[in-house]
Amino acid sequence: MNFRNFPMVPRVIFGRGSFDQLEEIITSKRVDTSAPFIFLVDDIFENTDLEKRIPLNYNDKIIFVSAGTEPKTSQVDTLRDQITNEFDRLPSGVIGIGGGTLMDLAKAVAIMLTNPGSAVDYQGWDLVKVPALYHVGVPTISGTGAEVSRTTVLTGPEKKLGINSDYTPFDQVVLDPDLCAGVPLNQWFYTGMDCYIHCIESLTGTYLNAFSQSYGEKSLELCNEVFLNGVLPEETSRDKLMMASWHGGMSIAYSQVGVAHAMSYGLSYLLGTRHGVGNCIVFNHLEEFYPEGVKQFKKMVDRHGVEIPQGLCADLTDTEFDTMIRVSLGMAPLWENAIGKNWKQVITPKKLREMYEKM
Ligand code: NAD
Ligand code: ZN
């Protein structure tokens, strides 16, 4: 048995208003006054109070990025080129402010500023050879666990696959639940359900171990408090969901996700369906695999009056179904975690087609 020895985020600050300590945190990491900090910021924050609170000094730069589409390898290369063309030396660090999209972009750009070639070359496991630039994650919506994970999920010309490496995790994370205050209900639910689904897939998977279970159970308990039981004050709910996301991410670090993720990758690749909502669309039809998890999920949907899109696959062609099935079947570790070593006997292309047709 070969046990995985993986890195964790070495520094984290938690608390409402902790964002205002960012300046103090990064100052000691500044190489010198001509090596800027690059802030990659969700463009939803352009001209807001948060923009004014970003601690710019010397030639530091904010680059606003839309989270309207999920991160692409070409987008990472372009951002890297933009930075290297504008500055004649390496920046002091990259700071991502936003949801999973901005977390992943910041991680990937930090890697590509020190490694040659294109982000495409590093999609996979342990292909990054040179440590990334110092990078900081500041999440503004909770659920993906991208703030703790060892991957950055990118869509390339041929595949949607993460850069999984020891250099991917952030050097520093700032967890300020107040930054999540403006998230719209549907998005709050979809991204929050990503966390809930991480827990269910991890806790019911064949890869489960005490490490993953301890984080997964805590995360699930927090998700239930936020989405299912009781009525929490909004601020408490934000605190708890932020920690649920963290623990959910830690839980899958040492296990794996499962059926919902494997199938939602197919939807995302073909139709551009976003991660959170895509997982919800798929999970809604997975009673066969996760009976209790799906039952509770449906209660949460009803409780919050959220709409889960239906009929996405109604008009797809055979070729399009085949593409989704190919992408989904490519996620072997996810299927093995969900079903076991003999998963190929259960999850055939025909079976996947029948499942996709319901969605
Ligand atoms: P997101 O970053 O895609 O953002 C979703 C929407 O919420 C966007 O419109 C964004 O502008 C908006 N938003 C974010 N913060 C807001 C705020 N405070 N107020 C108002 N609106 C706000 O959302 P996400 O669901 O966090 O991330 C999805 C991405 O994360 C996908 O690209 C997925 O592949 C990736 N992901 C990565 C990992 C990982 O481990 N690296 C894990 C899961 C998902
Ligand atoms: Zn996920």
Automatic annotation (TrEMBL):
Domain annotation Alcohol dehydrogenase iron-type/glycerol dehydrogenase GldA: ranges? 11-177
Recorded superkingdom: Bacteria
Keywords (A to Z) from UniProt? Oxidoreductase
Pfam families for this protein: ADH_Fe_C, Fe-ADH
Annotated InterPro entries: ADH_Fe/GldA, ADH_Fe_C, Alcohol_dehydrogenase_Fe
- Carries keyword Oxidoreductase? yes
Gene3D superfamilies on file: 3.40.50.1970, Dehydroquinate synthase-like - alpha domain
State one molecular function term (GO). metal ion binding
Locate the Fe-containing alcohol dehydrogenase-like C-terminal domain: which residues? 190-293
Name assigned to this protein: Iron-containing alcohol dehydrogenase
> What organism, scientifically named, is this protein from?
Sinomicrobium pectinilyticum
